[in-house]
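Supplementary Data S3. Sequence and structure tokens for construct A.
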Amino acid sequence: MNRRVLVTGMGCVSGLGRGVASNWERVEAGRGAIRSLDRDGARGIAAWSDGAAGDASRLASLDADVVRRLGRLDPLSAFAIEAALEAIDDAGLRGGPALSTRTAITIGCGSGGNATIETAYERLFAQGQAKVHPQTVPGSMITAPAAHLAMLLGVHGPVFTLSSACASSAHALGEAMHLIRSGRADVVVAGGTEACLTRGCLTAWQSLGVLAPDACRPFSRDRRGMVLGEGAAVLVLEAEEHARARGATAHAEFAGYGLSSDAAHMTAPDLDGIVAALSMAIADAGVSPDAPALVSAHGTGTTLNDAAETAALHRVYGRALENHRVIATKSAHGHMIGTTGAIEFVLGLLALKREVAPPVLGYLGADPACDLPLALEREAFAADYLLSSSFAFGGLNAVLIGRRA
């Protein structure tokens, strides 16, 4: 089988705000979330305030017994629940019969429940206590968000977590698409979540030496690195016939997916690996490289990644690249690690639908190694398709393609 896959629901939460509407409004207006975070001297963070509690009003509307069985929620799960419930409501599936054996859940996470793990370690090593909270293991598992969603939604089909660093949610979406194409599911709740703004996680990233001290400046001269963010983004994917049978409205078609492994270096990108994933996605979607495309770049603001991504886009598109427009929304919401592919796909699909290219923020001027048709101001741009890229540590690459439904 090779069924057409539609996007019928979207939800997200990030430093930009709660919900798709608030995230899109700020991205389109060029108002980012990056600021200094008053937490252990951290700077250059796409800060999120009061995110760990989740949306209490949404949880209150659910069966009290189910909520009680969830146990202690790490922010990793709380973010996923909030984004997923928005997507389910957007798709009109809350409480519907579709959420059963013919539904799957695929969630991407770069790491597990950092806050829960660090709290346990503090009790053991700093306070000298002999025990930790009994919910430490189930609360910190990287599979917890997917399991919690299955419990909340009553999903009995395939439920699993994909972890491939910064490409986690892009892989989760791509594999979800194949579950539907192959006929193994009619509906998939797919996306990613990450909760990494903890003391230990921030310290580890700072020690790696890739965090910018001020802002994320994709493809700009004098860029100084990436900025950490956290949150979740979840989409509802449906087989076309299933969506039409229930009268659902589609945001877009999920048309193509490409993936590859560099097999070269843990942190440095490889040009051939990136090109392979880009080319596979374009071929899978059956789109023309010459047709106008909105390119949602991985665009981390690091020296190596931006230059390699630029070279790959030139190799794949050639002179046709001038027909396209490149956006980089990490400059607004930061690098959300396991979430980043999903939230960039959500924002890219909205840009495609509205025929608008949101601005790349923090730009200081041209870098000869990053010669791209960037959207440096909000501009009207009618594209035939969206190409959204995620290139992760370990050389794990995933590229998604969306079209207007």
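Construct B, processed identically:
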Amino acid sequence: MSAAAPLLAMRGIEKSFPGVRALRGVDLDLAPGEVLALLGENGAGKSTLIKVLGGAHAADAGGLAIDGRPASFRSPHDARTAGIAVIHQEFTLVPGLTPPENIFLGQERARTGFVNRGEERRRAADIFRRLGVTIDLDAPCSRLSTAQQQLVEIAKALAFEPRIIVMDEPTAALTPGEVGRLFEIIRELKSRGIAVIYVSHRLEEIFTIADRVVVLRDGRNVGGQPIDRLDRAALIALMVGRELADEYPRRQGTIGPTRLAVRGLSRDRAVRDVSFEVRAGEILALAGLVGAGRTETLRLVFGADRRDGGEIALDGRRLDIRCPRDAIAAGIGLLTEDRKLEGLVLGRSVRENIALPNLDRLSRLGFVDAGRERQACGRHVDQLRIKVPHQEERARNLSGGNQQKVVLAKWLERNCEVLFFDEPTRGIDVAARHEIYLLMNELAARGKAIVMVSSELPEVLGMADRILVLHDGRVTGEIANGPGVTQEQVMRLAVA
């Protein structure tokens, strides 16, 4: 950092919400052309700080300056005018609009009262060429994949040539190739003096792309250092406030007989003749690139999508699963890839979300027993250490890690025999990940059968007993996990 004023200086930022003090006097500096990693556990205050910088929240105290000049943002438009672009973890696209229409929404260029759609289309195509990707410019964004929508969000931020870009979990839905291209774009931005605040729970990305790290804990800035002065263990200790002995906790237990058996599962080209078994006490990982058919396989078994063919058996008994209700009744639970869209009713309370698939067990004579409902909720809040002020707190107000714990709690209350974990730690901090890993191990030790989908190969190698690799809807190989197994072995099968 030079002696000159930083590009961005935030000083003494305070922000409180009812019952929660989110930021406690946070200071942060950012230099031109710097990639600053903003890290911390879920609920540490990262999102709140980003929203203050992006004009979505007004700070209760403190202030910020751009190039040494005080700035005050009353809206996201003010922040954008000052040269700050925020790529939020949750998409802000209008589903019915095309990529060019979304990219230039609010900054359309018009001639004689008419928007110049041709120019917008040319400019959007140029941005996507710089990103090295191909996007259907005429399709509504609702028809694009999650990864493609993420790329539209990135293009939207680049469209008005910002001086500061905030990227909140930008790679959550990207393939390794797309991540690599994004990092190339970030390095290009650095060379042009554009600064990036990068938020991610994927620590390997931090060591690849960041120049410096700032860590928030309980709303405070607890330290920042150049990335080359830290190793993975030191960074984790800074984030959680203690040493984490085993990032992927070891599990000792006996793997028993086959519990779930799937044969010849098919649906169009998404899933083609997929067969596998998972045994009692076993964690089976489905690995592969985005679009390989992993999530689609889980959804077919769970009855969320209708299968064209295939057989499913649990404990030797053939199941006729036509909808999720059938799967739940059989003892199968699914932690969905998108917990906000499919795993939770965000406008309902923690208590109601946990009770939702268990109403038959929590009711008497057709009426929900409120006492039993509260008791069940309290038990899981304590067991999973869900950070929530009270049971009536709405699910949308929880951090990502606590939302995931609520989704898990409803299936624990159901006492499912088979659990599908689809990207169980996406967008979750390292401490919350560790808690979920411990719980997965505990469930396996109790004889449950677990199938995990993960795009993070270190997680796959750290947690799975066996790895089933998919490519283009087909199984391309199976690996018995062990000390000698490498990420390269899995990737060779994933791109087969």
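The mean pLDDT is 89. The first strand starts at residue 8 and ends at 17.
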